[in-house]
Amino acid sequence: METSTLKIAVLAGDGIGPEVMAEAGKVLQAVAAQDGFTLDLKEGLVGGIAIDQAGKALPAETLRLCEESEAILFGSVGGPKWEALPAQEQPERGALLPLRKHFHLYANLRPAVCYAELVSASPLRPDLVAGGFEILCIRELTGGLYFGQPRYTRQENGELVAVDTMVYHESEIRRIAELAFRIARRRGKGLVSVDKANVLDNSLLWRKVVREVGQQHFPEVELKHLLVDNAAMQFIRYPRSFDVVVTENLFGDILSDELAMMTGSIGMLPSASLGAQREAGRQFGLFEPSGGSAPDIAGKGVANPIAQILSGAMMLRHGFGLDSSAAKIEQAVRKAIRDGLRTGDIWSEGTARVSTREMGDAIVRNLGA
Length: 369
Ligand code: NAD
Description:
By secondary structure, this protein is of the alpha/beta class. The chain folds into two domains: about 1-110 and about 265-369, 3-Layer(aba) Sandwich (Isopropylmalate Dehydrogenase), CATH 3.40.718.10; about 125-265, 3-Layer(aba) Sandwich (Isopropylmalate Dehydrogenase), CATH 3.40.718.10. It contains twelve helices and 14 strands. The chain has helices at about 15-35, 50-55, 60-65, 90-100, 125-130, 170-185, 200-215, 230-235, 250-265, 305-320, 325-340, 355-365; strands at about 5-15, 40-45, 70-75, 105-115, 135-140, 150-155, 160-165, 190-195, 225, 245, 270-280, 280-290, 340, 350-355. The strands form three sheets. It has a ten-stranded mixed beta sheet, sandwiched between helices. α1 (about 15-35) packs parallel to α12 (about 355-365) and α10 packs antiparallel against α11 (about 325-340). Nicotinamide-adenine-dinucleotide binds near residues 77, 96, 292, 297 and 303.
């Protein structure tokens, strides 16, 4: 595959964004040098800082930069300074949502990884999480209840009635199912599809299409269906028995937060929102930490850069098909954790408290070690 120069729009944003992005940039450049590809990282303004310097959360120049790039590496946006602005102009509503819409980012991937060394951070009972767990939640992002029409609140027979509509087209389900199966096939541990097929027509269609995609194209991937209420319970009871989970927009919104919470370490969790596939193994996407801009610790050099660094790894894997370079970064992160290095958010007695930069430097040193 031609991987000579990968053009990346780097939007660090607000709060801890610039600090953690600096570490991600260092790690990515180091792995590129080792693995023989070149990264063209171009920075753009986004979020609160863009409001301050260019008048809006997503300036036209930034959007153009993203259009000219093959992936967006996003930091985080928002903070108290901009909270009084009208909702549409605020950093998240004004930047992140338009970016998702503009690039038709239809699949949200959120890995919930609980490292064996960090199981004490999990709110779950130690015997449930012993040895850690790793679940990848794949959420459909552009369909379902959040976007269906009609949608209104109005007076009917003397009282207010609110209506939201859940709509899924077969093609939308097929698209996300194919992606989920492709990823599950690579990981080799099966796929769980979550729905509410005992109640919703939407879920009956979901189940039918997911089953067909599996039978037609991925017969080697073991597929299981779970009802969403059962899934919410089984995750907590048997976290180690799950690997890749795929579900629709609303269920995914809730379940992905449940899974993140089960790890107990928000500063460690990356995410990806994927759009059109450009060619086999290469897909446009926006890659960002699961957490926010953490204004409470911004500027202190203590934020955990791992979520941002792993977002870079997700970009290499899902955006460019560079699986081995992505795995190299993930191994380097695991080694830093195994070696007892901890930023403040994951620190515990007997481990070494390090700064944002020290964590980034250690991960660079661990690459390929
Ligand atoms: P948050 O995730 O920023 O912070 C919650 C807690 O987690 C804080 O105590 C914070 O210090 C900690 N935390 C988060 N990331 C960390 C890291 N990498 N290292 C160490 N600790 C970390 O959530 P919040 O406080 O609800 O939101 C703060 C701001 O971020 C708000 O303006 C919100 O709108 C915005 N936000 C942005 C995004 C995004 O850009 N995608 C997502 C969520 C929240």
